[in-house]
Prior knowledge:
Chain A has 327 residues and is mostly helical. Helices cover 76% and strands 0% of the residues of chain A.
Amino acid sequence: MSFGERTSRILLSTPVLRIGSIFTTLFGISIFVFLVLRVIPGDSIVGAFGIETGVLTPEQIAQLKIYYGIDKSLPMQYLSWMQSFLTGNMGYSYSTGISIASLTAKALPVTIELALIGTILGVVMGIAVGTFSARKPGSIRDFAGQLFGLMALAVPGFVLSTTIVTIMANKFHYFPNGYEFVRLWEDPWMNLQQMMFPGLVLGIAVAAPVMRTTRSALLETVDKDFVRTAIGKGVNPRKVQTRHILRNSLIPIVTMTGIQFGYLLGGAVIVENIFSLPGMGRQVLYAITRREYATVQSSVMVFAILFIAINVITDLIYRKVDPRIKK
Amino acid sequence: MVAGVAFVAPAQAASKDLAIGVTLDIDKLDPHTATSFSTVRMLGLTYGSLVEVGPKLDIRSGLAASWGFNADSTELRLKLRKGVKFHDGSAFDAEDVKASINRVLDTKTTAAARANIATITSVTGSGLSVLIKLSVPNAPILAALDGVNMSMLSSDDIAANKIGKTVNGTGPFKFVSWEPGQSVKLEKNATYWKAPVKLDTVTFRIIPTEASILAALNAGTIQFSVLTSPTVALQVGKNLNLYRTPGLGYVTLQLNARVAPLNKLDVRLAIQCAINRAEVVKTAASGEAKVVGPITSPAYASDPNDRPCPNVDLAKTKKYLADAGYADGLTIKAIVSPTQYATASGTAQNLKAQLAKAGINLELDILDNATYVSRWLAGDFAAAVANNGGRIDPDTMYTRYFPSTGNLNKVAGYSSATMDALFLKGKATGRAAERKVVYKQISQELENNAVWIWLFAPYEYRAAAKNVTGFIPLATGSLIELRVVDLK
Amino acid sequence: MKRDSLKPKGGLYYYMQSTSGIVGALLLLFMVIVSICAVFGWLPHDPLEQNVEFAMQGPSTTFWFGTDEFGRDIFSRSLDGMRRSLTVSVSAVSIAATIGVTLGILSGYLGRWFDQLIVRLSDVIFAFPAILLALAIVSTLGNTWYQTSLAIAVVYTPIFIRVARGPVLTVKEMDYVKVTRILGFSSLRILRKHILPNVTAPIVVQVALSLSWAILTESGLSFLGLGTQPPNASLGLMVSEAQSIAAFAWWALFFPSAFITIVVVGLNLVGDGLRDALDPARRSS
Lengths: 327, 488, 285
């Protein structure tokens, strides 16, 4: 093998390619979010001062531009942000004076916890109802299961959330989210109570597509030749169910779960607002509204790293679950 | 049975903790640069200013016990209150007043109140006497000394650059902690100069949606709240106390008289005559607002009927449009930001529907908050559905908008020699009776020229549990009267 | 591929065998008729007209679904809203599905560096807050339904890429596919005969799901001024605006929500019917 051939072999080999592509993606995201923020009208000064910006003198504005880091040229701003980010300094939130890293360290676990609860509830409900439905297609049980799936899809999350809040708080005087948010390790019982309703709302939203995907995938697989062959061969139908059918249906379910979990990690803003959960969704939306560039940029980078991690894990699960996909 | 004298340990009084539900977090700890309302509201409990505003919005003594102007309102002498202490125990005196006012005047501070007190040339004094000298006669300066943006800070703190990092004020409550996005905790100031504070702690809890705030009140997890949405306020039940006060802020359809076709007085008057304000109040604010004129400061409040068209008169509208050459109608683009305040979207939609009946197409340009503010500041609009803040003094309310030298005159979209002269007159006069005449003239000048279309002043709401006693709401939105509140 | 009988039957025949499909088709027909009426203005009242004297009234003979706080007819607005919601939803998902499925299949089939490129590109979009993207599109390109559709399309494309890619990866490794590749059959033929049929079902499900989600995504955007502009109506905007007055006017929330339910149920049932019809290996009972 020539040197050239060997080099290209190594460069194109899967692990190198994979790591290289991850870094390229992150780089792409950083540029994308940086530019998009600058394209939108309004800057950090207007975001922070609002209409009072109008009474600032030109000298004050120049001084503020330096403070908010928007005085230099765009490439310079990008480089200086990237440089600090890569050295672990995500910048400061101008309103609180606290480092974005510590703000994110506080908000991220909340979002992760909520996303996990929502996804787990949703997947459990979805697979259960989907399997229930698929067992006897066209029957009353199928109809009931389908109805659940479609209702879960049609009811908007904010309607469900406010309904729960209204009934619980006004009728039963029970509203754990009306107390200050406590972390899982501070007071697990209270924390779970505060996560319960939002988790349920998100769980229902996740259950809908998971249920439909499960049902569809199961119905697909049941008719496949190899299943009929197995039954024909005399394999116990129940065994066929679990081993063959479920396993082969898992790919689309895993895909859907990964996607849903990813979305929830991005921060379920509406649910976080209605249930006063101090998560990433609220943090990012607040920062976007106030044009706190560093906070948005750094938060998006954190998401990106998480998403990519989830996708890599999902791909690995594909290979584990479906024996036919070889490495 | 225990006979004789029974020894009973004194019962521990339960801590009086008040939890307040608010939708927005504070955004800083420096009172001089605080502009966001939620920040001002919280800091108002920890800091104090030389003068205060009473429930009737009259100027009262605060950290200044008494004062007096010289003959031509160019000098203001203040006698400070005795025995006032900052939270860290240090005494409040003239040094602190000097340092604080100079800090506001220093452009490097970017203080919000700087423009209001720009006529101050020097602050001198010692002990409990202060002399403020002004460059021109400026009677309204007294009102300008009120408010969180004019908080008196410790001169030591200013010298040590601690402002915005720590909170050390003279207010009824001491700052304890700020958990961003979640809560701000305050505790009682045992050495407060006014009456003893009854509450032990006050916690601002951030609950982003007002419907959830109401739920928290109903479930008893909070005892007090500030609400802005009329529909939520109307759902407050008999189990709670609702305090409803007309605010100083007002909703208006700002017109940019420098842009065609609004540069024609007839067009602007046509719009004024086409609007039924009561209908806007009913639809956009669920009836929970007061129709107002330009000035909402109670002592100088405009009479909403004192305008060319206090009521709808479509015949007049038609005539004005025809005179202006727009007999077939016209289109005006209006910017509006629905997320800014509860009544924004409703106001815009109802105005559009009403104007449509008169042949005027109000095209709505719906923008996100920062985009709206950018365009608003640049005067880059023909019309804007705005909710602007009001003040207790009409000069501070409009001096930035309508005099041609005002910082926001570009936004106001109008200026005239008459207007300039009137504003100067208002600043020069010290006596209330004379001032009332001047500001009435300003109000009439604004309405006769249909500079903007003033609509209504939304009510402000505080909702509280029944065991919260003694609270007095202020139209400025200040919660200062929590200093006398008790929890039964 | 097996054939159940000697005479080849068309997809339509199989579609008609499915009850879900029929019910869904009827609902779809209803939605189309409603939309046509809205487009041509064949409505009992003008959806924008404010009759303030009749504000906040329940269903009556004049206003079949009642009125909102401006005295606007909720029935007419619901019909108009359905048309708007469907327009945005269908156009957004069409774009997202076309681009996403194509890229997903190619990505899964071709593998290696191309696959990595596409997957990572879709990650870039996925990691991006949708609101930020929508703000950027609307700020630069304008505030009509085209831009809203575009924003939603961009946000939904990664899902289609992922959903299409998954089955392709599975099928690609199957023995009989490998054999056909070795035997030199053209990629196009392999794609058409073997890959596409396995990808159809999940994609049909995903299209129905995305169409349903798009209606509510549009609602979230409208609330921030990025979607349908008030006073125009879309079902999602009506539902989010009705939240504040729901305690006083349940009809303002109920009827648009019911319409959303009809759309969601209809689209998904049609999806089921299509899936049954298109997949020759599976015919539902």
